[in-house]
Amino acid sequence: MRQNLHHTPTAPRALLLAAATLALATLAGCAATPDRSTAAAAAAATETLMFEHARSSIHRDGDDLLTAGLGIDGLRQMVPPAFADAEAPTAAELRRRALWSNWRGIADLGPGGGYGTLYGSVAQVPGREFSAYATVPGAKHPHRVLVQLPDAFDAAKRCVLVTASSGSRGIYGSIAVAGAWGLPRGCAVAYTDKGNGSDYFDLDAGLGFGADGRAVARDAADIAFAPEAAAGASGVAFKHAHSKDNPEADWGRHVKQAAEFALQALDEALPAQAPFTFDNTRVIAVGISNGGGAVLRAAELDGDWLDAVVAGEPNVYVEGQGSRALYDYTTEAALLMPCALLAVDNLPQPPLLDQVKPLYAARCASLAAEGVLSGADTAAQARQARDLLEAAGWTAEALRAGALSAGFDLWRVVAATYASAYGRYGVGEGPCGFSFAAQGSDFVPRPATAAERATWWPDASGIPPGSGVGLVDAGIAPPDLTLKGLQCLRGLWTGDGTDADRVRAGIAATRAAPPREGLPVVVVHGLDDGLIPVAFSSAPYVAHARAAGRDVRYWQVRNVQHFDGFLALPDYGARYLPLLPYVYEALERVDAHLDGAALPPDAVIDATPRGSAALEASHLAMPR
User: Fold this and answer.
1) Where do runs of H (alpha helix) occur along 370-449?
2) How far is it, in rounded angstroms, from Cα 75 to Cα 301?
3) Between the chain's N and C termini, which has fewer beta carbons within 10 Å?
4) Cis status of the peptide bond prior to 465, with omega within 30 of 0
5) Which one, of 324, 328, 323, 306, lies nearest residue 260 by Cα?
6) At residue 276, what are phi and psi to the nearest 5 degrees?
7) Quick one: 301 exposed, middle or buried, by C-beta within 10 A (0-12, 13-18, 19+)?
C-alpha cells in the first residue's frame, strides 16, 4: 500500500524493517522446502520500498520549479539569495538558495555562454514538488528523493526523467541537467542525491538537517544523516565520507528508487490518470559526472523499467578494457600532477602558475627524494612526472585541463573522501588521519557558527572545502605540506594491509556491468576532461558494453572539459565549450528514438572554442 505523500509516517524505520523481517519469516514458515519461487518472493519483499518523511509543496506565482522565481538574472547574481535571519532561514529561503547554488555549480550562465538563448531553459515552470527519504536494503542511512511535477504535465506522453546529482551534490544537484530539459517539455523529473548530498552533521553542536533543509537535533525524527561518533567527537561529518554505506556501490538502485517514487507521486497527484506504471510511463535516465555513472549503473539493473539512458562525462569503472578506478587515477594525479604541470605549456588560468610554482617545485623535489623521479633539476623532474602520467594514459588535453583540479587541491579532498567511503569508515576512523571541520582564514579547526551552519545544506557541494568547512590533514608538514597524507592515500590502492584491502574491496563493489540488452544508451564525453578522463571511463565502458553485444552510442566532443560552471572564468570560457548542449541534444535524440526515429550514430564532434566572442551554434558543431 502506498503511503500518503502529504503526511509524514509515524512508524520509525526500525519498526518498518522489523515488520518486513517478520513478514519474511512468516512466508518462510509456510513452505516445508524453500524453492526458487520462495527465494524470489523473499528478495522482492526485501526490496519493498518505504518512503519516509514525505512532504509536498506548491511552487507558483513567482516561485517556480526551475529557479524558485530567480530567473536567469537572479541566477547570474554573484551573491546568493539572502536569508532574512542568517541563523534561522526558512524552508523556502533554503530551497531558493539551493537552486541558485546548484545552477551556478553546473551550468555556464555567463552572458556570452548562450545559456537560455542558444541552448537550455530557465523558463518559469509552475508546479508541485514531492520529496521523501528512501533506503536501499542493507544501507544504514537513507537517500533523498524528490519529484517535480509541472502543472503542464503532458498526460498524453506520460514522461518521467529520472536523474542523480553530479559529484556529491544535494537533491537539487541535477536541476540544470534534468530539470532544465524535462520540465519545460511537460515531463515529471525525479531526483536522487544517491546517498551523498549536503546533509552535513555538526559534531560540536549535535545538529544535522531535516527533511526541509533546516537544522535539527540528532534525535529529530526526520534527520537526514546522524553519524555514529564517539563521545566528544568534534568537527563536521557528511554522508559521502562517514555513512559507512559505500553509497557508490548502490547508485543504480538509488536511481531506480527515485523512479519508483515518481510513479507513486504521480498516482497521488493525478488520480484521474492513475495508475502510473513502468509499462505505461516513459522513463528516461540522465546524469553527468557521478550522476552519469549512476544512470549507467541503473541501466544494468534487471527489469524492463527504464526506456533510455543518456550519460554525460560519467564516472564509471568496468572490468578490463583499460578502465581505471577513480580512486586510482585521482591519487596518482594528486601526487604527480603538481610537478608534471611545470612541464605542460599553455595552462588555463587560474590557477596562476606564478603563485603555485613554488609548491609544485617542492613536489618535484619530494618525489625525487623518494626515488620516484630521478631528474637532475626541477625542469627534468617535471618532464619525467609528465611522462609517467602520459604513460599511464593521461592525454595532453586531460593534463592541461587537470590543472584546475590540481590548483584548487581537488585531488586530495576527493581522495580523502572516497577512501573513507570505500572503506566504510566512520567519524575519526580513517586510516590516513583526515577529518573535516569549520575553518577560518588560518585553516585552524574550530566550531561552526549558526550562520555558517545554515548555509551548508543549500550551498555545500557534498565534499568540503566549501561553505566554511575544510579538510583537516593530520600529516601536514613542511616543505611539501600535503605529501605524507597523499602517500598514505595512494598506498590504500597500491599497498598491502587491512586498510588497503578494505578500500579496494569497496572500489570493486562499484564496477559497472553492461546495460540491459535492448536498452538505448548514449554516452557523451568531452575529450579534454581533466577530472574524469575519457580514456579511463567512457571509452572502456563503451568497449565493455559492445563486447557484451550492447548497442551503446558514443559522442566524443573536442575542446570540452569537465566543469561547465568554470566557463564563467574568462580563460576557460575562451578555451572550452560547455557539455550541457550535447547532453540536451542526446536527450532529444533518444526521446525521438522512442517515438520511432533512429538512434544517433557515434560522433567525434569538432567543437570550436569561442575565444572572446559570444557562443554561437557554429561553435558547437552539433551532429545532425
Assistant:
1) 378-391, 396-401, 403-407, 410-422
2) 37
3) N
4) yes
5) 306
6) -100, 125
7) middle
Amino acid at 129: E
**Beta-sheet strands, E only, within 159-294:** 159-164, 188-192, 201-202, 207-209, 215-217, 236-237, 282-288
Q: Cα–Cα distance between 234 and 212 in angstroms, integer?
A: 25
* Maximum alpha-carbon separation in the chain: 77
Q: Are strands 215-217 and 207-209 parallel, antiparallel or unpaired?
A: antiparallel
CA distances from 276 to 185, 476, 532 (A): 18, 55, 37
Q: What is the pLDDT of residue 50?
A: 76
What mean pLDDT is predicted for residues 122-127?
Answer: 97
With a cut of 90, say whether residue 1 has pLDDT above it.
no
Spatial separation of the C-alpha atoms in residues 583 and 286, rounded to whole Å: 8
Helices (H), 194-289: 239-242, 251-269
Q: Residue 161: what residue type?
A: L
Q: How many CA atoms lie within 13 A of 117 on its CB side?
A: 12
Rounded to whole angstroms, the Cα distance separating 489 from 333 reads 12
User: Which positions ≥6 away from 467 have C-beta within 8 Å?
Assistant: 452, 455, 456, 459, 460
414: nearest Cα among 350, 337, 356: 337
Number of C-beta neighbours around residue 332 at 10 A: 21
Residue 352 pLDDT class (50, 70, 90 cuts): confident
Stretch 475-482: mean pLDDT, rounded?
A: 94
Residue 363, pLDDT above cutoff 70: yes
502 pLDDT above the threshold of 80: yes
CA distance 263 to 539: 34
Share of the chain above pLDDT 90, in %: 90
Per-residue model confidence as pLDDT tens digits over 201-243? 999 999 999 999 999 999 999 999 999 999 999 999 999 999 9
Between CA 49 and CA 139 the distance in angstroms is 13
- Catalytic residue check, 289: yes
Cell numbers found for residue 66: 526551475
Strand order in the sheet with 127-134: 52-59, 127-134, 143-150, 188-192, 159-164, 282-288, 308-312, 521-526, 552-557, 603-605
Per-residue pLDDT at 354: 82
| CB contact at 8 A, 182 and 189 | yes
Question: pTM for this one?
Answer: 0.92
The whole-number average pLDDT for the span 86-112 is: 97
Task: Look over the chain and give the mean of its residue pLDDT values, rounded to a whole number.
Answer: 92
Handedness of CA 261, 262, 267, 269 (dihedral sign): positive
Catalytic residue among 289, 405, 435, 538: 289
Which DSSP symbol is given to 578?
A: -
Cell of 395: 592525454
Q: Measured between alpha carbons, how far is 210 from 199 in angstroms, rounded to an integer?
A: 8
Percent of the chain with pLDDT over 70: 92
Q: Judge whether residue 44 has pLDDT over 50.
A: no
Q: Using CA of residue 404, residue 407, residue 411, residue 413, what is the dihedral sign?
A: negative
Residue 333 has pLDDT above 70, yes or no: yes
Q: Are 317 and 537 in contact (CB under 8 A)?
A: yes
Q: In 517-583, where do the E strands start and end?
A: 521-526, 552-557
